[in-house]
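Board notes (copied after class):
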Amino acid sequence: MIVRSLRLRNFRNYEYVSLDLCEGMNIITGENAQGKTNLLESLVYLSLTRSHRIADEKKLIREDMPFADIACRVEDNDSETEIQAIIHNHGKTLLINRNPVKKSSDFIGRLNVVLFAPDDLYIFNDQPRERRRIMNQEITKISPQYLLSLNQYQSLLRERNVLLKQEKTDERYLEVLEEKMAEAETIIVGMRSEFIDTVNEVMPDLYREISGDDIHVGVRYRCCIENKGDLRAELIQMHRESRQRDIERRMTLNGIHREDIVFEKDGVNVIQTASQGQKRMTMLAFKMALLRYIGKKTGKKPVLLLDDVLSELDETRQKKLLEMVQEPYQCLITATSFPEEIRKRNYREFRIENGTAAAVSGGGR
C-alpha cells in the first residue's frame, strides 16, 4: 500500500497543499507550529474517519472556511484508488473515487496507517478507555465485522443502562438484552484475544532489535471473563451473575466496555518499573508490531507515520529503526531538521512553513 499523493484544502492551517510522495521515506521538515503534524493527522483521518488529536471535527476546518477537504491517491496491487473526506458543519462526506459512501465501514481500511507520536507515551498512565480505543481502532481497520459488533454492543449497552435506571426493572427484558450483548461480545472478545496474541508473537523480538536490550516486553489482555472456552455461555453467565448488583447500582458494571490492556516489562506493568527510554522503546515496538498485525491480516503493508520520533532516539537506535522500515514500508517522518542518516536512503524531503509545503530534495522515485 503506497500513498502516491496527498491533497488538502482548508484543513487546519492549510489553505491548499498538494504533495507527490515517494515509495520510501518522506521527510517533512520545518520549525515547530508550522503544520507538520497536521499532514500526518490528515492521513490518520482518511484511515479512521476521525482525528487522533481532537473530538470536535469542526476544529479541523480552517478558520472562517465552510469546509475542509482531504484526499489522497492510494496504490494497492497496481491499481489506484482516490479516497476523500469532506468535513463540514453538518458532519462529513466520505467518497471513494469521487462516489459518496453511506457507511464508514465501507471506507475504513482503504488506507491503513500506523502512527507513532510522543503523546503515545501517555497511554501507559491513561484511563483504560484510551487503551481500549487503541485496540478498537486497530481491529476496526481490518475487520468491518468487528466495527459492526462494537456498534451493536454499544447500542445495547445504552439500552440496558436506561432500563437499569427505571424505578422498576423488567428483568425479562434485561435477559433478552444480555443474550444479544453476549452475541456481540463473543465476536469482540475473540478478535481482541487474537489481536493481543498476534502482537505478542513479534513485539518482544522487535523491542530487542530496536533497543539492543535483553528485556521481554509484551501486552496482557484483561478480559471481562477468565474462562474463554464457551465464550457466549461464559459472557451470558457473567451478565446474569452481575445483574442484581447492576440493578442496585443502576448501571452495567461488567462487559467488554470495562476491559483493559496492560503493557508489561518482564511481566510487570511498565509504569512501575520502566524508565522513560524503555517506555518509548516499548511503545515503538508495539507500533512496529501493529504493522505486522495489519500486514498479516490484510496481506497489505500499511503506511508508517513517525511524528518527531527520531529526535528522541540516539544515533544507533535511529539507524536501527530506519533499517527496519526502509524496505517494507512507506514512511512519512516529521522533524525540525533533516536527519543525516536518511541521506543514504530512498527519500523525498518537503519543507513546511506557515501552512505551505515545498519539495526540497530527495533520492526517491
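Comment from the instructor: Residues 1-112+300-365 form a domain with the Rossmann fold fold (CATH 3.40.50.300). The chain has two domains: 1-112+300-365, 123-298.
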